[in-house]
Write a structure and sequence with these properties.
Elements (H helix, E strand, L loop, with lengths): L6 E5 L7 H11 L1 H5 L1 E6 L1 H11 L6 E3 L12 E4 L15 H19 L5 E3 L5 H6 L7 H8 L8 E6 L2 E5 L15 H17 L7 E4 L14 H15 L4 E5 L4 H7 L4 E4 L2 H12 L4 E5 L4 E5 L16 H22 L1
Parallel strand pairs: 1-2, 1-5, 2-4, 3-4, 5-12, 7-10, 8-9, 8-10
Antiparallel strand pairs: 6-7, 6-11, 11-12
Length: 339
């Protein structure tokens, strides 16, 4: 029913990328209104440019204050008046664009905290632009955790491809630093975070598997002891806490089991261990979830696609999937608050 749809924000993302045209396409296709009471967030001039690039049209109501958000009023544009598109150069990393996209994310989070929004699905952003714009965070996930007050709690990026999710113990750090950052506590946090986030996404009893860090799973300790000293104890502890988890299994075969449907999520040890498998399987379909945040936050996993920005050919598949998941998580959060 219409009133059951969550009120979701849709920030336009990096102005030099494909975000504005993707949002315009989803709005014109009816995807935003089907799954939410949508509030597009960004400068109206940027949205109009996205509409022109996409070659679509749709009706929206412009508002300038979050107090004007009314559920069921069609597509709303909360005009931030934050970017003059007159000199906008597509496909270029820009400090001004980075500041604008991050400023809008901070505004969106504030409006979530103030109760105007129940979550948000943001168009692709550019991490380098954000850093040039003055937001010195490892990624947007650290920005979210800082501004939403959960930096001291387990949080991070999860990736979704169709029915398979991945989480990871370490993320944007050099490979040379991974092993010393793999501890029982951190592995346990990653397992718990995956379990809790999958439940928010609609899984009642998620099936989780752990990827080993060493070749052949350490070959019984002859090729590294992390599996014996860290991963196996973490798996036992998670199981004692009621989490359905297996492993560790060698990372060169674990995804064969996962893609076959044996598991709902794989917890990996470092960034590329899971990302390579997921992106090879379906780069244009992937979703990124900001796990551990108090609100539903998702985005397509493919990034700003500077190589095709402005051509009107960007595929909406990943954004559609991300938006549907965001709506589902927001409704789950709403239901949990009622309990």
């Amino acid at each position: 029913m219409k009133e059951e749809r969550p009120i979701l924000g849709i920030p336009l993302g990096d102005a030099a990328g494909i975000g504005p045209e993707l949002v315009a396409k989803l709005a014109a296709k009816g995807v935003l209104s089907e799954h939410s009471c949508p509030v597009i967030i960004g400068d109206e001039r940027l949205l109009i440019k996205g509409i022109e690039i996409a070659g679509v049209s749709f009706e929206y109501k412009r508002i300038t204050h979050p107090e004007d958000i009314v559920s069921g009023e069609g597509i709303l544009l909360l005009d931030t008046e934050s970017l003059d598109t007159e000199g906008l150069r597509l496909s270029e990393v820009s400090a001004s664009n980075g500041k604008e996209e991050a400023d809008n994310l901070v505004r969106t989070m504030d409006w979530c905290k103030e109760g105007y929004l129940e979550g948000f699905c943001f168009a692709p952003l550019n991490k380098a632009a954000m850093k040039l714009g003055g937001y010195e965070y490892e990624s947007e996930h650290e920005l979210f955790a800082d501004k939403l007050g959960v930096a001291h709690l387990p949080h991070g990026e999860m990736n979704v491809l169709e029915d398979l999710w991945t989480s990871r113990v370490t993320s944007h750090i050099p490979l040379s630093e991974v092993s010393r950052n793999i501890t029982v506590e951190r592995v346990m946090d990653a397992i718990t975070l995956a379990n809790d986030t999958l439940r928010r996404g609609g899984f009642t009893n998620p099936r989780i598997v752990i990827a080993a860090i060493n070749p052949h799973g350490g070959d019984s300790g002859t090729c590294g002891r992390e599996e014996i000293d860290v991963l196996e104890p973490a798996v036992r502890l998670a199981a004692e806490n009621g989490i359905r988890v297996d492993g560790p299994f060698p990372s060169d075969t674990v995804f064969l089991k996962a893609f076959k449907g044996d598991y709902d999520a794989v917890v990996t040890m470092y960034h590329d261990q899971g990302q390579i498998a997921m992106k090879l399987k379906g780069f244009q379909k992937g979703i990124t979830v900001a796990a551990g945040q108090p609100y539903a936050i998702t985005t397509p996993a493919h990034g700003t696609a500077y190589d095709i920005a402005g051509k009107g050919i960007a595929d909406t598949g990943a954004f559609e999937a991300a938006f549907r998941l965001c709506a589902r998580m927001a409704l789950s959060d709403r239901e949990n608050k009622r309990k």
